[in-house]
Structure prediction request, 377 residues.
Amino acid sequence: MSLGHNEALWSLDLKCALVGAGVRYPQEVYDAVADWARIEPPSNPYACNCLILPGEVAVHLHANESSRFSLRLEMQKTWLFEAETPVAEVTFPTASSYYQQKTSAGHPFGSIAVLEGRSTLAFFYLWSCEYIKANETCSFCFQVMADQAGFNLPSPSMSEVAEIIKWSIENAGVREVQLTAGSLFSSPTECRRYADLLRTIDQQVGLDRIKSEIYCYLTAPKKPTDVDQILEAGAARVGHDLHVWNPSLHARFAPGHARHVTRAGQLRALEHVAEKFGPNKAFSAFVAGLEPLEDMIEGAEYLASRGIVPAFSVWMPTPGSVTTDSKPPGLDYYRQARREFARLYKTYQLNPPGLPAGSHVSICRDIFRNMDAILAQ
Ligand code: SF4
Prediction:
């Protein structure tokens, strides 16, 4: 099969299915590729492993022995099967000794940031989330679940963050950096920390060495102008994730945000960035699958029409969370959703953050790269 657009769209279908269902990942596949691929063995269920589907579509490889998908070796190639049907030849990012590295303070790099796709470095929990204290955490948040389960998630110093970025640019081909941390009740403090961190990275690494973008996911500040210092310190853009548009589901799935920031507060902060810094400087992710399609699309249209990029993450069910009572939606939901997001990106000239073969669960950049094919379908 030639690498036509439909193959890339097929990969988008597979990405949505695989994030929801996981894949059977046998040891023999690991043994066959471990000398050239960046991959951890199936015995490590917490590994941030990545599959790359045709069309440079990266997807999280979470091992699930009861999945209808499986990885198999065929003629020394790795193939993805759905039941007994081969559906795509897959590959992996290039091997790296990233997960063997420790910071000068002795923290394993992998306990602070993960490599995603071919060239994205994602800091996932730079400091602890204060909503834990109020028992108002978001129900799909892996970081907080790991924090509450007693996993040792260190809060790195700003120098450690810069150290990891420098090493990753020089040794792991990193071109994009995501900064994410827990929510603080004091938004001025949270904004100041991100601005100080960006200045530290600039002094110790040089922001110009990050060839694509560095951007921050943070809590919407109560005083929207507090975020200005982060963009002035060099962030390419900022994200205040709504997660869901539906007000009652928002309060159910993100109680801390709903109570301490409010949905209106999040919108005010996003609109402030778009008005002051222009389109594409603010974005907000929806966890696709958590709410009815029409609600999510209403939210995406609201944001896009104001120059705010609606981002699209595929929902990955988290065992033990309140979302366990609902199942990921079918392919139709995701196909309709991507068509609407492609229409919005085209109509409002929006370009979501991300790189080819980048994020493992977000597909907004994959949609953007295949916009014309999606809209032609
Ligand atoms: S605010 Fe929600 S998503 Fe952010 S760290 Fe806290 S629980 Fe997780």
